[in-house]
Each structure stands twice: as C-alpha cells, then as structure tokens.
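Schema walk-through. Below, the input block comes first and the output block second. Nothing else is stored per chain. Lengths vary across the set, and this one has 46 residues.
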Amino acid sequence: MAGQDFLAQIRQTEQEAADQVQQAREAAKTYLEAAREQAAESLNLA
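--- output ---
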C-alpha cells in the first residue's frame, strides 16, 4: 500500500507540475501578445 500511495503522490506532483507549465506558457503568450501590440503602437506613433 505504501508503494501505491507513493506512486499516487508522484502522479499528483507530475500533474501539478504539468499544470504549472501550462499556466506559465499561457502567461508568456499573453505577455508576448501585449509586447507585440505595444511595439506595433510604438511603430505607428513614430
């Protein structure tokens, strides 16, 4: 039983890590989109 609990903990940790990676990717994508928009606005003003 202890081995199964340990494996379950590992799977949960892996899932949490995967979720965090996904959140980081989404945050980076949002940041890059905002940076692109800002750059485009700056070029239009120049």
